[in-house]
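Before drawing any conclusions, I looked closely at one protein's amino acid sequence and its backbone structure tokens, quoted below without any editing.
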Amino acid sequence: MKLLVFISLFLISNSIFGCSCSSESRELNANTLWKTDFIVKGIVVGIDTVIYNSGLNREVKIADKGLAAVGKLRVALKVSSYFKATDELKSDTIYVYTATDGAACGYYFALGNVYMVYGSQRARHLRDSGKIEMETTICSRTTLNAEYETILLRTWMEETIFDCHCPDKKAIPKIEDIEQVAFIVKGKVISIEKTLYNREIEEGVGLPILANKISLKVYSYFKTSEEFTSDTVSIYTPINKNLCGFDFLVGEVYLIYGKQQKTLSKDSKFIEMYTQLCSRSTSHFEVETMILRNLVEERFIK
């Protein structure tokens, strides 16, 4: 009976103090990733309430008198992928600790749900030296929206790791340059929205990235396919220049060079238009138009 009362007091003590998080702690940036010890995605396969000794940085069977012990949730996570982790952490199933309620900054997990978990690692004390315990809180970026967070995280990592390297563009395009692109179109940008785009769409698989979807009011075509002859088209480009994304502005007129790619959607095939920084796309459309007219026919949209 004494043990049950003791455990109850520790569980109740978690909700006495309010939880306060800084806005920066949940932002996706280099500082957040640097301070985060592990980032994993997985499905919750078990949740247990345990007594956790913060002095020893480990779970205990009986709260040791004189040492800080609190009730915590031990979440069993079957890991599907790691984004950041030490060698000690990597296994098929890991245990992550969190406070029992939100007032103590505990994160709410539910059995069967998939989460992206951000957290810290704590080395056990004294005789358990070398073993690692993992913790997370509502102040981290831990989220139930794991698939979207995966895309954000991978895109952000690519943007920070990779850089866009383009070969030198020729001052004057030649006919072989025209043959290498699927479309050349002149028009005015009427809207830009963020969306998901799959760069490996011909196979119907691959990693979606965040992209800008450009809605373009077409003035004229220099080259296109039969699928694209309308007065308004959508063109995709990566969201960041490090991924070779072209920087469009609403209201500006551009001459755009790009590719057309097939994407699978159930039983239908759709064609999408794609451009990037390494193309000859330009806002200096007057000069480029004069050059192109000597190479190909300009077909105006009425």
